[in-house]
Design goal:
Strand content: 15-25%
Shape: globular
EC number: 2.3.2.6
CATH architecture of the largest domain: 3-Layer(aba) Sandwich
Order of helices and strands: EHEEEHEHHEEEHEHEHE
Subcellular location: Cytoplasm
Largest sheet: 8 strands, mixed
CATH class of the largest domain: Alpha Beta
Pfam families: Leu_Phe_trans (PF03588)
Distance between the termini: 23 Å
CATH superfamily of the largest domain: Leucyl/phenylalanyl-tRNA-protein transferase, C-terminal domain
GO molecular function: leucyl-tRNA--protein transferase activity
Main location: cytoplasm
Length: about 230
Amino acid sequence: MSREEPAPTGWVLPDPALGEPGEEVLGVGADLEPGTLLAAYRSGLFPMPLDRAGPLGWWSPDPRGVLPLDGLRVTRSLRKSCRRFTTTVDTAFEEVMRACGDPRRPSGWITEQFVQAYVELHRLGWAHSVETRTAEGDLVGGLYGVEIGGLFAGESMFSRERDASKVALVALVDALVAAPGPGRLLDVQWCTDHLATLGVVEVDRLDYLELLDAALALPPAFTAPEGRRSGG
C-alpha cells in the first residue's frame, strides 16, 4: 500500500514537550483532516473527544503507555488461540473501526466523524487494521492504528470471541518485529490494568518524545499489498 502525503494542516498544534507533568489534554479544537492527524501523531499528540458529544481534544498522556516489542506476554492459552484463528491485514479497515466504535461498548468515543477521518487516512495509506478471523473467514476481532515511519499508534481493538483482539495484537507485534531497523515504537496511549498484563509499560512524556523522534526516522512496516493474510 503506497502512502500519499496530504496537504499540511493549517492549525498550530500544541507542543507536548511544553506540557505540564501529568497534564493530558494539551489543546481543544482544530479538525480531523489527514494533514492535521499526521502532524499530531508526528508531534506526540492524538485526538479524542473530551466526552462522546464534546469538543475535540488533543491528548498527550503523561505517563504514556507503550508496548516494548520484546515485552509482549503470550500465555499458553493465547498461543492456542493464535493457532485457532487466522489474521489478515487491511482487508476490513472500516468494519474493524466500526466494531471498535460500537456504541454499546462502555466508554465509547469513536464517532462517525472519527470513522470517516480514519477511513480517509487508511485510503491514503497511513492507517491500518489487523483482523482476526475464524477458519471460515468470519471477523471476530481486530485492531487499528496509524503508522508513520517506525511508529505504530494503536487506537482501539475489539473482540467477539475469547482472545480474538489479543491474537490481532500478537500479529501486529510479529509484523513490527520482522520489519527492518531497531527502535520501533508501539504506542497504546495509556497503560490500563488489562494492557499491563500483556506487557505494556509506562514512560514519561519526555522519554516518549525521544522514542518517537527515533522511530519516525525508520521505514514503515506495513508496505505489503492490501489484503495480506498471515498464518493461523
